[in-house]
Amino acid sequence: xxxxxxxxxxxxxxxxxxxxxxxxxxxxxxxxxxxxxxxxxxxxxxxxxxxxxxxxxx
Length: 58
What we know:
Order of helices and strands: H
Number of helices: 1
Strand content: under 5%
Shape: flat
Low-confidence stretches: none
Helix content: 40-55%
Number of domains: 1
């Protein structure tokens, strides 16, 4: 929040899409098929982003 105004940055977004096609995923924790895919994607994205930040700010 800046000066009482809510501020959102697009890099902080999480989008979950449900099309109704495919199998249901009642659990998305890190040991589930869905959760492990999400965890790997997040780890890779963070690794790249942190690496870029370190290059620019080291």
